[in-house]
């Protein structure tokens, strides 16, 4: 049924307000669920063609790999999904939006650029590590060899996202030193 | 390309012709910023301590704690031996003609003993390195709290011959891995992770982005280190040059968490990374998250984040910083190329 001229459609690729509302609602549900289970309260999903192709939660603890942020896990799922669906990764990425409750960190922002994800919708700022303006602005920086810049839509239910992070950090952290690595 | 997979010996090059230079923060590597001030000759040397005391009360120069108030005049035959800083030009009262009288209020320090003021340029900030100190002192006497290690590092003399031979060995392993990756169609980037205390290689990896767009050599090595600690999430078995050595003391299971904190290896804490070329933003930040000890790389890269586009290892807001050295084994990179090319590269 979809028969839109590719050129113009690609340039204007951006989620509608209705889509933003709906997918951020799912991301916040994920974050709440994580908080209730004593995990990092960050919800993150990647949506292509109105379906979730990647979903992530922080896996630093169990993998002992400090780069296993929710976004990186979700990107891996997207790759697997492309392989299973026999679709070209870069053409899927070009039309995929990331919805995440907290601003991606510098590493994840660079990873999103390298993956050519065009748009990121996030809730609150990440004052410690944020890569979409809070610490560095990797999302729009002039880095011609680091994929493409991406558009950010920020502030969606920001206070709620901050409150979840606060209550998480207030909890006694059973893993002590992993404390700093969560975002 | 070369027909065999033997290790690069680099034997045609002098093993000591490369120098590992520190990649310092912008504050440490930038030029000396100067600010204009009024100075005046001390006509009567005996008045010096009174003048300093009274001028310091009137113009404390609290932002210039690193500046000495008085300097000796070096030129022979000068009618006065000393000059004193009166105030910053920006702090001076707004008058058309600046005289020593216009700078000092009538009820303040007595201007007898001081000659007419003139403008000097003084360093605006305390020097952080010896080169900055030497430049600053040319303008006005400046005090300097020297970090001896930085001074030695900037001279390229931080690492002695035995350390350099270890560094050479590690970087050659990284180059060998880079070559192996390149033969599989990946970008020619390799990395080696070392425990510098035990002088032990923990992991060797190369770029694998042909199969996963984010598997840069550093990311591969971070996961191989995780695997050495019983974690990790990617199978790299199909790349024979990507290897890790399991942590030797993965047992016994500690009873209290404090013991665990001290005895068990924890992500990349304290480990050194040797990377053939400067890491990108993603990899540089991954090294921050992994709490790496030091990073050594060979060549700079266009979007590099440890010196070229950013210096993420010196970023103030981040909760972990580390030392970075560049230029390791540059002779192996360059000695195969023409002299012209080497010279052009070094300019
Ligand atoms: Zn992240
Ligand atoms: Zn990289």
UniProtKB/TrEMBL annotation, chain B:
Its cofactor is Zn(2+). The keyword Repeat does not apply. It comes from the Eukaryota. The lineage of its organism: Eukaryota, Metazoa, Chordata, Craniata, Vertebrata. Gene3D superfamilies: Cytidine Deaminase, domain 2. It comes from Labrus bergylta. Residues 165-325 form the CMP/dCMP-type deaminase domain. One of its GO terms (biological process) is tRNA processing. One of its GO terms (cellular component) is cytoplasm. This is Adenosine deaminase tRNA specific 3. GO terms for molecular function: tRNA-specific adenosine-34 deaminase activity. CDD domains: nucleoside_deaminase. Keywords: tRNA processing. It holds the Pfam family dCMP_cyt_deam_1. Belongs to the cytidine and deoxycytidylate deaminase family. ADAT3 subfamily. PANTHER family: CYTOSINE DEAMINASE FAMILY MEMBER, INACTIVE TRNA-SPECIFIC ADENOSINE DEAMINASE-LIKE PROTEIN 3-RELATED.
